[in-house]
Amino acid sequence: MQPDARLLEGETRPPSAPEERFSNFYRQHYWLVLAFAQRRINNHETARDLASETFRVAWTKFEQAEQLGLAFMYQTCKNLIGNEYRRQLRDAALEVKLQHCPDRGTSDEHSARLREAMLGMRDAEREILYLTYWEELSAQQLSEVLGCTVEAAWARISRARTSLKHILRSEVPNA
C-alpha cells in the first residue's frame, strides 16, 4: 500500500498546531474583516488597526472564533468599531469642553496648550483624567471601572497628572 501522494506533497494535510490553524484562519478572513471595518470607518489606518485587534481577540478565543468563523469575526469587529466611535466622541467632547470652558482666569493660549497636552497623552492616562475630572468619578468608582484597588486608582491618577504636567512643562519655552 502506497501513501497518498497528496499527503506527501502537503496539499491536503490538515493543520495540527493551533498556530498553524490560526494562520490559515487569518489568511482566510483577514481581507473580509478589513473590508468590513473600512466600510464603517473612513480611515484606512484605523480600519487596519481594528482588523488587527479583531484577530488579537480571535487568538485569545480561538476555539470559539474557529467554530463560528466569519460571524465571530464580524461581531468582534463591530464591537471594536463601537469602541472606536466612543473614543472619537470622547476626544471630540474633550475638544469642545476645552474650547468652551468658563474663563477661570486662564487665557485662550493656556486652554489650547492644555487641549494639545491632553491629546498628546497616552490613551490610558488620558482616559483616567477623563473619568476623574470630566466624568467626576471618585477614586472608588474609578477603581471599579479599572478593575483595581482604590490605592492603585490613586496611583494611576497621580501618574496621569504627572504626565500631563511633564507635557505642559516641556512645551513652555525657556521653562
From TrEMBL:
Residues 113-164 form the RNA polymerase sigma factor 70 region 4 type domain. GO terms for molecular function: DNA binding; sigma factor activity. InterPro entries: RNA_pol_sigma-70-like (IPR039425), RNA_pol_sigma-70_dom (IPR014284), RNA_pol_sigma70_r2 (IPR007627), RNA_pol_sigma70_r4_t2 (IPR013249), RNA_pol_sigma_r2 (IPR013325), RNA_pol_sigma_r3/r4-like (IPR013324), WH-like_DNA-bd_sf (IPR036388). Residues 25-88 form the RNA polymerase sigma-70 region domain. NCBIfam families: sigma70-ECF. Gene3D superfamilies: 1.10.1740.10, Winged helix-like DNA-binding domain superfamily/Winged helix DNA-binding domain. CDD domains: Sigma70_r4. Keywords: Sigma factor, Transcription, Transcription regulation. SUPFAM superfamilies: Sigma2 domain of RNA polymerase sigma factors, Sigma3 and sigma4 domains of RNA polymerase sigma factors. This is Sigma-70 family RNA polymerase sigma factor. GO terms for biological process: DNA-templated transcription initiation.
